[in-house]
């Protein structure tokens, strides 16, 4: 053990140099090019939890326009970590770190070795098996002695003991989940060029274009060889053999093209989905508050359409230009000569005009389709309300007009599409053959020129067909982009980052209540949790102020009841406190720090709200996911134990026992249905499990009967460090 500790000394970075570690690891991995001097973590973080250290590391990486993601992996899959999780920062167990937190900076890895950036900025390797024994030592140490004893008793041969020990460890510890460090990566919100370069997207693009060009050249060469034999009046065995080789050579080239296209599709599709998810998370709540279910459904459907159309139509249109460029070169040497080149240019312009007409017709059709979809979904969601409130005579008003307009737009779109598919390629063949016929009328070109001209006409026809199909897909893509574009662009919004020169107090620490006689004395000396001074907020620049001159303090351990009439600004104040809305003026401090220093993400972790019932949701997922979605996922056993304890305190124990799958029971529209009161208590439990410094409950007790209300209040008062309850008088 001492040897391993001595060997690790030149590999490990102390936590006091964490900023330097992240900066050099990012530069050595090619993620950044410009020098950025990151500050070192504050001393208060040296003995903090891994959660607090990981939060600081993520904020530090944010200044490099990167992100840090915790690595959670099962023991049996540790070999995958060594092979694929680089660059990464691995935490060294305390047994090897001499009492201080230290880390390994993995730059790259392979199946047998991992390469680490050392504090002297040299890269040194560590064998994969040795790395696993170091990182997993705290988990293996409890079993190794017992395993060796068993192997001694059964007199296992020395040559096979190491393999037997490893097999037993995999069997016993295989499902154990390990939190071993953090992976450093480029976020989906980065510039596309940076993402494509780092993820290797440009390689399959270059391979696809290059191999497709080679494929077309082989096709032209095979035509040349077979044509030469025909016009010579006999087939030479050598030329026939060359023709066969050219045809066979197109097979591996076509395989390479297909593989490159598949690789490119998976890479771009993965990046696209990640960016859309991040863009959705960065949307301001006010941007989506006024949108209905139909609009969200349109966005979901269009996101799938964008991915498929971009990868299919984009490739087809791109490859068509290669064929058209080659067709121009072939036609210039054929019988038609300049006339064929001019004819193809004119026909190409006419094709683009037809495609523009298709785009306009597709735009009108897509708009009508979205409007009908949105209306249908909204009417389905509000069906019960319509049955009660809306006059039956107006249930189907304007539906016939909408359907008639939609059918006319569909017919127009189909007519233009048929014209493009039939006239573009077939019309060009007539034009191309006319230019060749014109050449024979004006002269007598040789037979070889006739063959070249015919080949050029066919190649151009193939390119025009691909161009028409590709551009039609791109036109549909542009229409779909109107729904998806805002999400894609929202991902690039700058991430608000806190200052790195301090470590805020640990979130979720249990509140230690003080004696009632000492409350008044201590309230003047302890740090306020929330300090608000002269808060001013309004929803619109010229609108009426909802909050004006609002000043107060909330201290740790306070239990506050906020009452007032509807529309008085209670929920608005809750939104300001939780960081969902920023005040127009005034100061708002959390533990003495404002939002700019603490950061919006950190603020929202420390002040958590259960919104009003109509603004909170049960997702179509497991009961455990709905409880722990604001905490961490996948959950640890202690998370599920705490969730069960809170549920039973809230009176949800009977619900857990009724559900066949317990915590794994699927909820939502297609799963287990919860009553109004059960949903309210689920929202309270979800909020408490986030272990925030301040819990805000916005009318969360209104749907509970007196018995469950008493239970819920007792649970909240015993578990929430500080709580603000909003209710009607």
Report on the structure:
This protein has 4 domains: 184 residues, no CATH class; 92 residues; 202 residues, Up-down Bundle (ABC transporter transmembrane region fold), CATH 1.20.1560; 212 residues, Rossmann fold. It has 25 helices and 14 strands. Strands 1, 2, 3, 4, 5, 6 and 7 form a 7-stranded antiparallel β-sheet that branches. The longest helix is centred in the middle third of the chain and has 45 residues. It starts with a helix and ends with a strand. The N terminus is likely disordered.
Task: Give a short synopsis of this structure.
The protein has 25 helices and 14 strands. With 729 residues, the chain is of the alpha+beta class.
Number of helices: 25
Oligomerization category of the chains in this entry:
single chain
Query: Percent of residues in beta strands?
Result: 5-15%
Radius of gyration: 34 Å
Please identify which CATH superfamily of the largest domain we are dealing with: P-loop containing nucleotide triphosphate hydrolases
Largest sheet: 7 strands, antiparallel
Measured as a percent range, the helix fraction is 55-70%
Given helix and strand content, the structural type is alpha+beta
CATH architectural name of the largest domain: 3-Layer(aba) Sandwich
CATH class of the largest domain: Alpha Beta
Mean pLDDT across all residues, rounded? 82
**Based on CA inertia axes, which overall geometry fits?**
globular
* Strand element count: 14
CATH topology of the largest domain: Rossmann fold
How many discrete domains? 4
Distance between the termini: 67 Å
Q: Uncertain spans, ≥5 residues at pLDDT below 50? A: 1-6, 508-525
